[in-house]
Amino acid sequence: MTSPLVTRSVATDTLRLGLLRGFELRQNGELVKLPLSAQRVVAFLALYDRPLQRVYVAGSLWLDSTEERANASLRTALWRLGRPSCRLVEASTTHVGLAHDVEVDVREAKAVAALLIRSAPAGGSMPADALFDAGELLPDWYEDWVLLERERFRQLRLHALEALCVELTANGRFAEAAEAGLAAIEGEPLRESAHRALIATYLAEGNPGEAIRQYRLFHRFLHEHLGLAPSQLMEDLVGSLPIPHG
User: What is the pLDDT of residues 184-207, one digit of tens each?
Assistant: First the structure.
């Protein structure tokens, strides 16, 4: 007999879950409101690509509760998610997962980032809008599991943008390369590797003045905020340029 908690997505519906820049759920373009307890369950499941054991989900989301109370809280949240008009989860007596046809923005961004890092396409043809437009993962949530996933995604995104900058520079697409480099710097202004990638773009483009300006900006910023100087890798990159220090 099928568990009453087992739900399946309606094929005619389009469910899109946004976790970047904040929690947002839309069904066929219309905003769907969920109680916070249900939002937490949906967001947690969305960060995994497979069903999870119920006891693990309950223990992770209700750390300060006993196992019995945590499991009861999960059951309540799943019941609130079980309405026929907007089915988000697939649950059994032992496991629970996000419904397979729910579109999730952070999953899409992660997939693009992983491809760029592991095998950047020739000519930089991979669509990277999901990375340029991405904000922080659930920026107004402060639970430990969110903080860990937020930092993991931040690092993945920054590495992907740098890889894209390098790839586009190698293919002579300097305007797009600069955009990728600037997006990486915006994500973390103290990240030297992002500044190096952008400076390398300016040098390849034949704009030493831009390279000098970017170097001096980074040099000053690093000194003011951390009391540090650029690494030898940076100095080697700009070594042939007439950069006045001080």
Answer: 999 999 999 999 999 999 999 999
Encoded tokens for 225: 């905020």
Task: Give the integer Cα–Cα distance in Å for 132 and 141.
Answer: 22
Query: Alpha-carbon torsion 116, 17, 40, 89, what sign?
Result: negative
Answer whether 32's CB lies under 8 Å from 87's CB: no
Best CA proximity match to 164, nearest among 103, 217, 227, 119: 119
Beta bridge pairs of residue 18: 24
* Domain boundaries, given as residue ranges, for the chain: 15-101, 105-237
Q: Which CATH number fits domain 15-101: 1.10.760.10, 1.10.10.10, 1.10.10.200, 2.60.40.10?
A: 1.10.10.10
Q: What is the pTM of this model?
A: 0.87
Sequence-distant (6+) residues with CB within 8 A of 129 are: none
